[in-house]
Specification:
The protein is mainly beta. The chain has one domain: Porin (Beta Barrel), CATH 2.40.160.20. Helix content is about 15%, strand content about 50%. An 8-stranded antiparallel beta barrel has the order 1-2-3-4-5-6-7-8.
């Protein structure tokens, strides 16, 4: 990972490290609101940060640093376990290979992986402290010049499966609001759409700060 990428990841990593002493010395949180109430089971999350996207093949794809986004909606199954549906993306900065400045349809990211996944999250202390999550889903590859070359108009040029793991720290800020910092790793295999052929593996590392409501 480049030095610039490490510098961009440092603020989120610092938040995670800062949460460790509080988690180590804190006692189990109070029971809080009734977990069986429907309103207390709902879970919404909006996050953004920096991502590093890498591909195992450079025939079509470049690697680089860019923007990471994620939106999640789900429900709490037990006081410590939740399940949700997440949609996210990691895109890299434009380059001559993935962006055409004279084409208004070119992606502002230039090249990106978007995904939709089912995610399961564990919170040992229920509504604060460390949390751990994993998920599986579908991954989509976007590259505007390749889409033009293949005559595709659907906004993607490849599709595959993906697997994700993440961990982070949660700070309650109100009765239902939380601020979170997380570090996640997403890996998947994408096959290019016809008339192109071939496939590649990708790995995305994301450091996000999110606002959650639950």
């Amino acid at each position: 990972m480049k030095a610039q990428s490490l510098r961009m990841l440092c603020p989120v990593l610092a938040l995670l490290v800062a949460g460790w002493p509080a988690a180590a010395g804190a006692q189990e949180a109070d029971a809080g609101p009734d977990p069986d109430a429907l309103s207390n089971r709902l879970w919404l999350e909006f996050g953004a940060g920096v991502g590093q996207l890498a591909f195992d093949s450079s025939q079509y794809a470049d690697s680089g640093t860019g923007l990471s986004l994620e939106v999640l909606a789900g429900a709490r199954l037990t006081p410590r376990w939740s399940v949700g549906l997440a949609a996210g993306a990691v895109g890299i900065k434009p380059s001559n290979r993935n962006y055409n400045a004279y084409d208004y349809g070119s992606s502002i990211w230039g090249e990106s992986i978007t995904n939709v996944r089912l995610l399961v999250q564990c919170e040992p202390r229920r509504d604060n402290g460390w949390f751990y999550a994993g998920g599986v889903g579908l991954a989509y590859y976007h590259n505007k010049p390749l889409e033009d070359l293949a005559g595709k108009s659907g906004g993607r040029i490849g599709k595959g499966n993906e697997f994700m793991l993440r961990f982070g720290y949660d700070w309650p800020k109100g009765p239902r609001s939380h601020v979170q910092a997380s570090l996640g790793v997403d890996t998947g295999h994408v096959s290019l759409d016809a008339p192109l052929s071939g496939s590649f593996q990708y790995t995305a590392v994301s450091a996000n700060v999110a606002v959650a409501f639950r």
